[in-house]
Design a protein that fits this description.
single chain, alpha+beta, Glutaredoxin, four-stranded mixed sheet, globular
């Protein structure tokens, strides 16, 4: 049985889509999943990048594309009232509960179904009451756990969410689910091409002169 670590942040619509699609995408295979919340913004800061929702044009395309993907795959999805939002309360709540599939499903659907404000204080209180975490989400213990999870993700080479880690390999994105399935099935492509595919030389890009 393969063990998959599903690195996620509830702010990511692609992480939501991947979460909902995962059971069907890997149907019939033997695997176990560990759900690992982390702060996507921490990955962005480390790599010196903006999030898709922070780039005009890309923001609008991202929202249209994820809603189209949800439509095509039959996944219920509505944009929250505001996006991006601060996901810290949700991430800490998940860690305080113990981030199993039920907990992550409840939080993902709090964000991506119904079109409400994911960071609304009253809704967050109701969500916490419903999940009844055994640890205090506002405790230093939980806050440190989130920092450590994000730092470990950076150390492992993660640059975005969702990322699926299995063995020594990382699979990034909702659209990587078929590739993940092929690896779990033992597709020989991975032995032949996984390492060589990443060996192309990187050429420095110089600014164009007008």
């Amino acid at each position: 049985m393969k063990r998959i670590t599903f690195h996620l942040d509830f702010i990511s619509p692609y992480a939501y889509l991947a979460f909902e699609a995962l059971p069907q995408a890997l149907e019939g295979l033997s695997y176990a999943v560990e759900y690992q919340p982390l702060l996507f913004a921490g990955l962005l800061r480390h790599h010196g990048q903006l999030g898709p929702a922070e780039i005009p044009g890309k923001r609008e395309w991202t929202y249209r594309q994820v809603l189209w993907q949800a439509h095509v795959h039959g996944i219920p999805m509505q944009m929250p009232a505001a996006h991006p939002f601060n996901p810290l309360a949700l991430l800490r709540l998940a860690l305080a509960c113990g981030p199993n599939r039920h907990v992550c499903e409840t939080i993902f659907r709090h964000v991506w179904q119904g079109g409400a404000d994911a960071a609304d204080t009253a809704r967050l209180q109701q969500l916490q009451q419903a999940l009844a975490p055994p640890r205090d989400p506002a405790s230093d213990e939980v806050k440190n756990a989130l920092r450590e999870a994000t730092a470990q993700a950076v150390a492992q080479g993660l640059f975005g969410v969702p990322t699926f880690a299995v063995d020594d390999k990382l699979f990034w994105g909702f659209d990587a689910l078929p590739m993940l399935r092929a690896y779990l099935q033992g597709d020989p492509w991975f032995d032949a091409h996984w390492n060589s595919a990443a060996q192309a030389a990187a050429t420095p890009v110089r600014p164009a002169r007008g």
